[in-house]
Amino acid sequence: MSDEFQPNSFPRVRRLRAGVLAALVAGTALGGAADGALVARARADDTGVIRPDTQIQTLPNFVNLVKQVKPAVVSITASLRADAVDDEGGMDGQPQSPFPFPFPFQMMPQQQQRRTVEARGSGFIISADGFVVTNNHVVKGATKVTVTLDDGTTLPAKIVGRDPKTDLALLKVTSQGKLRFIELGDSDKIEPGEWVVAVGNPYGLGGTVTAGIVSARGRDIGDGPYDSFIQVDAPINRGNSGGPLFTQDGKVVGVNTAILSPSGGGSIGIGFAIPSDVVKNVVYQLEKTGHVTRGYLGVVAQQITPAMAKALGLKAGGQGAPPSGALVASVSNGSPAEKAGIKAGDVITALNGQKIDTPHDLAVKVASVVPGTKATLGFVRNSAEQTASVTIANLSGAASPDGSVGDKNEGGPRLGVSLSPLTPDLRQQLGLDGTVRGVVVSDVQAGSAAEQAGIHAGDVIQAVGNKPVENPGATVTAVRAALKANQSVLLRILRNGQNIFVAVTPGSGDEGDSNGDSDDNQ
């Protein structure tokens, strides 16, 4: 269906909505009477029925909030090469997931000339001197970026830095006067059921306001190694990418990033926002250095099943849930974890006093620790709770918590991919059985040799040349050996159940990317 407006259809839509509204109003009146009867019976019933202590409240009014925050919300236009836009109108440069949904919002490409197209997104100003936060996929691959303020003023923007792993980017605009800006709030304090407001530029309609509630926290949607999204039911659509999510006190608690849409179309009330606590850390580093460094512990961890918990002598979770924690499957040689005495079979339950629920939770929390910082690990060994002091290292040049291997600081050609081990969770998500061996491509750097060769996130690299590979470290070693012998490297890849060969030539892509992807891995 075309994204263009169809004015002739509007009267029919209004008549239809009027009928639905009447039905909803009638339903509300009847529902109120029924609820009253149920409450009366519940209070009279003393058999253990739950009696919530609630107060009837009217819906909140967001008029004053929106008037005050809108001047800091901006529309972003990114100019892209025509060949950077795929056949469906989305950008090849957007983060790609091996899973169809959820997905980052695609922009609204609008043809300028045959050589360039425009893609539109959202953002918000966080300082009087013009720093602007948006999504990485809004500006990824852009040759020119402009920011349009709420009053219509258009300003050229410079990309200060990008972080593909959290899908965040920091821009800088220059204005003759001080700009009005908004503050980042504390996303750790929000609760499911709390009202939130989204402001953005969906389908090019700048300044659009929608409201809803927080549906859940800590969502891992398989889009990146450090996913920990806020789920909301506020209607957000294509073009809302990078826009702010406000609480009623006017603070930004999230950056709208992705939606769940089975049809691939608009909102169905399941949206995802990057928590402001993540944004603060990433934006601070992008502003200071133009790139992001992450903490490294040096373990490969896995989920604890009920059978494992019983064998390990762990206490069961509440209501039959498996115990929380991350079971250490292996420890990297010379890693901070090994130096701290962590062993395979330990169950990590806390980091600096913060509870660890899952291996993914451990990866997210470790990555947020500044390299060189001392941290305290809580873990269980032989049914006994213990603690250990560990000095978190820099992820760049080492194996990450999810098994990725980085080599940014080492010289030589780079393919431009991030690799992850083929864990049981990834096998299930990719539909692979236990006989498949290899490593999963978790991310592909924009403009890299790998992207130019057509490698996608979700591909499983099974061999480098004629050498089978089963972990990220072995893959990197094999790639380097192949490059020493030849200018190109031949990869055997499993994609959608089919084996294919892909030849990658380092230097064929845009290796001169200066937008801060300093911790992309090979």
Structural class by helix and strand composition: alpha+beta
Mean pLDDT: 76
Total domains = 3
Beta-strand fraction estimate: 25-35%
Strand arrangement, major sheet: 1-4-5-8-7-6
How widely separated are the two ends? 39 Å
> If you consult CATH, what is the topology of the largest domain?
Thrombin, subunit H
Number of strands: 28
Largest sheet: 6 strands, antiparallel, barrel
Q: How would you sum up the global shape?
A: globular
Uncertain spans: 1-42, 86-103, 105-113, 399-411, 508-522
- Count helical runs: 10
Q: What is the level 1 CATH name of the largest domain?
A: Mainly Beta
CATH architecture of the largest domain: Beta Barrel
**What is the share of helical residues?**
10-25%
Radius of gyration equals 25 Å
Subcellular location: Periplasm
GO molecular function, one term: serine-type endopeptidase activity
EC number: 3.4.21.107
Main location: periplasm
